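May I ask for an example protein's residues together with how it folds?

___
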Amino acid sequence: MAALGWLTPRRRSATARSVLAGEASAEAARKSSQEQEELAPPNAPDEPDFPVIGDDRAAAFFDLDNTVMQGAALFHFGRGLYKRKFFETRDLARFAWQQAWFRLAGIEDPEHMQDARDSALSIVKGHRVSELMSIGEEIYDEYMAERIWPGTRALAQAHLDAGQKVWLVTAAPVEIATVIARRLGLTGALGTVAESVDGVYTGKLVGEPLHGPAKAEAVRALASAESLDLSRCAAYSDSHNDIPMLSLVGHPYAINPDAKLRRHARDFDWRLRDYRTARKAAKVGIPAAAGVGAVAGGTAAAIALHRRRR
């Protein structure tokens, strides 16, 4: 991991692990973005390093799960790894249950989240980063491409058309988040950073998952590094867990919001967009839980069928 000297030390209410996770994610995102710029063809349309149309100190930050894409990126990634025999059927069932529990409960039990985190890390431990990146490209086409919300994608494109940089901000691994951002034509991604040595995963995280306060720290760190004015930036999310990130910017948007975020958005006069069906939008809070329940149920059915065929 490169030195984080470009970040200014500061005292905040976030935990030290949240700050470390946020800073590590911001550094990884900037490195990935710089590499993409270096690989751009020399005869590409003339684009400035920083926006010249509109506000050149503004950018947009988009949550991923249920904001840009229907469902959880990590779950779809797990499906792809299971297909490639990275782990056993019982592990897939456990991942489905962990996601369903999180969505239905609407709370973050530390012990439960630690179990989910350790399970995911144990799968990639010993594998090369380049291998997971390559597989991520395939998994995007198999499970994710058709789940992108057209409405949210149009919002991101509007920022790009205005000359602003657009970043994904997600608890998903930074590698898969970077793949999604690249495939959508976005600037880059802030995601959870897993430790690697000589390009091989160690099974440990740098800090903690990029979730809740850690997302806000990542956005703050990136804004500082990019000389952005957060009061002129925009952020988009579906979850009340991202209120810390949304509260950082001058233009927060609630997208397909859960019940708590919808109430908060109304109380603070934030803009709201809902791209679900009218019936689902009328039952805010149920869609995510019901959707994940369906996924978990479908997974259980698939597992049962798999066992009968053996």
